[in-house]
Design goal:
This protein is of the alpha+beta class. The protein has one domain. It contains 1 helix and 6 strands, in the order ββββββα. A 3-stranded antiparallel sheet has the order 4-1-6. A 3-stranded antiparallel sheet has the order 3-2-5, with no helix packed on it. It is elongated and about 70 Å long. The two termini are 36 Å apart.
Length: 126
């Protein structure tokens, strides 16, 4: 990613599991220049056959990077399976939405606000 440094991201995921359905999700963010791991996380949602709950599953949470970065790689792996389910059957694992919104560090936001403020003042003078 280019531009100003980013300090974190809001991560949104939604899906559905039923009976033998299971969603396993892994995410890792690595600084491209230093190879520093800025974030790593994993989540598992399981249907009732694995001791979880049948139905909709999801995540909507903000995560902070260990240090701001403007040049990074994002690795994501999603595994959806219904291992052990009878055939034919009703077991389900579905991933409906995966979204991330990156958040700039406060200094970048301040610079942007200052620039926009200057444009507004300049426009008012004309």
């Amino acid at each position: 990613m280019g531009g100003g440094s980013l300090m974190g991201f809001n991560f949104v995921l939604s899906g559905f599991v039923f009976e033998y359905g299971q969603i396993i999700f892994f995410k890792k963010v690595v600084d491209y220049n230093t190879s520093e791991v800025l974030f790593t996380g994993s989540w598992v949602w399981s249907g009732s056959a694995y001791g979880g709950s049948d139905g909709a599953v999801g995540l909507n949470q903000f995560f902070t990077l260990s240090s701001p970065s403007s040049h990074f790689l994002v690795f994501e792996v999603a595994i959806l399976h219904i291992d052990g389910a009878p055939v034919p059957g009703t077991s389900t694992a579905s991933l409906l939405l995966v979204e991330q919104d990156w958040v700039p560090e406060p200094a970048s936001l301040m610079a942007l606000a200052t620039g926009l403020g200057a444009l507004v003042l300049r426009r008012r003078k004309n």
